[in-house]
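Figure 2 data, in text form.
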Amino acid sequence: MAQTLLSKINSPAHLKELPEEDLARVAQELRAFIIDIVAAKEGHLGASLGVVELTIALHYVFNTPDDQLVWDVGHQAYGHKILTGRRDVFHTNRDLGGISGFPKRSESVYDTFGTGHSSTSLSAALGMAMASALKKEDRKHIAIVGDASIASGMAFEALNHAGVSGADVLVILNDNAIGIDPSVGALKEYLTKTKSGKETGSDNIFESLHLDYSGPIDGHDLPLLIKELKRQKDLKGPRLLHVRTVKGKGLKQAEIDQVRYHAPGKFDKITGEITPSDTSKLPPKFQDVFGLTIVELAKQNDRIVGITPAMPTGSSMKIMMEELPDRAFDVGIAEQHAVTLAAGMVTQGLVPFCNVYSTFLQRAYDQVIHDVALQKLPVVFCLDRAGIVGKDGATHHGVFDLAYLNCIPDMIIAAPMDAVEMRNMMYTASQGLELPIAIRYPRGRGKIVDWQQPFTLMEIGSSRLLSEGNKIAVISIGPIGTMIQEVIKEEQLNSTHLDIRFLKPIDTRALELIFKNHDHIITIEDGTVVGGLGSVVGDLAFAKAYQGKVHKLGIPDSFMEHGPTADLHKIAGIDKGTVLKLIKDLL
C-alpha cells in the first residue's frame, strides 16, 4: 500500500492537520506499515495492531507530548513510535543500535515512561498527574493498560490510590481478553459481562473505587473514539474509559491465533503465514525441556504442581496445563502472588514448581525472602530467560538473578549446563529438599539432541570437572560452559574447566584444589559480574590467601541494551573470541 498520508506524518502536529475523515486511511496505512516491517524484522505484532485506531485518536485529540501518554506494556506502542517521528528508523526496531521495542525516555520526549514490564503505567501516570497538580500545570496524563495488566496487584494499588487522590488522570482500559496468553481470573469474567452489555449497576468495580467509569466502547470506531476522547479531555479527576479492541486487528491470522501472533517471528506480509522451519532434528529449547520434564515428573509424583504468572506458552507450562489441568495454574500477571501461593502449597505437603522469567522474579523479591526463604519452604523456582535475552533488551535481560538470590540465606542456586543436567536438577528437587531452590536457564536451544536420559539424583552443591590442565582454570556456571568446552577442545588448550553447577552452596572443596594448582582462574557467567560467580570465587580466593589471579568475566555493571544475543555477548566480553584471547594471553 502506498503510504500517501503516513509518509507525511513526522509528528502528531502533522496528524492534527488532517481532516477527521482521512484518519481511517491513516489507520489502514499504519497497520500495513507495522505488518510490513515486523514481517521481515520480527518483533511484537498483535498488540500494536489492536490499538491502531486508539493510538491515532489519542495523538489527534490530546496535545502530546505536553499531554503525556504512558503505554502499558510497551508491546502496544509501535504505532505510537511511528507517529512520533520514528517512522523512518522503525526498521531498526530492536536491532543493535536501533530504536527500542518498548517506550524509552531517552529515545523520545513522547515516551514519557519506560514500560517493558507490565502494570506500571497507572502508578507512573498518577505520579505525573499529582506532580502536575503541585506545579499548577494544566496538562493531561493518560495510562493505556490492557485487561491482563490491570489485574496485577500493582495496578490495583494505583487504582485504589487514584480514586481518592483527586488527580486528573485518565486510565484507558484496552480490553481484548488477552495478554500474551488469554487473560485469566475473576476480573476477566467481570469485564466479559460489561462487554456483553449486561447490567453492572452500582456494583461497577471501578466506580466503587471512585473512578468516573465510561464505556465499554468500540476501540476500532475512530469517530466514536475521537468524540469520547474529546469529552474526556474536558473532564477532571480520576476516570477510566473502557475500550474494546481485537488483538491482531487487520491481519486475519493474527486475529485468529492471537497467542502465536503476539510475536510471530518472520511471516509473509501478504498471506500472514509464518515462515516454516524444520526444527525436528534440532536440540530442544530449554523451555520445552522444562515443560516435558515436569509432566514426566508429575506423573510419577502426585504432589507436584506447576505455577506460572501469565506465561504458560512462553515457559512451556502449557504442556502440563493440557495434560494435567487440575495441577497446573496460570495465576495471571501476579508474580508476588505466584511465589506466595507456592509457599502456601508447600506448607501442605505439595511440591510446587514455580516457573517465572528471571526478569519478572525481580517483581517478587520480598516474597522470595519473607514468604519462602525465611521459612525454609522448599519451593522449586524455575527461572526461565536467565542471562542475555537479545532484542527485548534491558527490561528483559535476566542477568541479575544469580546476584540477587545469592545474598538470600537458605537459597539453593543451580544452573544446568545442558538439558540432561536440567532434567536431573528438576528430578532432584522433586524428590524433596529442605530448602528452596532456583534453577536458572536461558532462552533458546541447548546443544544435546538425545536429552531424555533416565533421571539421576544429583548431590546438591556438587560440581563437575570437565577437563584438566595446569596454570589456567576456567570456572563456568550454566550453558555458557558448553562454549568453554568447545574452545578448549577446538584449540586443544591445556586448561582446567570446572562446571560449578551450584552457586549456592558452592563446591568449596573443588575450588580449593583449583587454588592449589593454578596460577590463573577465569570465572565466566551470563549474569552481572557484580555479586555473582566471580564475586563468590574471588571472596573465597581471598579468604584462602590464593596467590594467583582471578579474572572475572560476566555482564558489566551497566544496563545492556537490545540486540542479537551473540552481539551482546561480544560487547559484554563473554563470547568465544574474547575467552580464547584471554586464555592464550595468559598461557
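Caption note: Residues 23-41 form the longest helix (19 residues).
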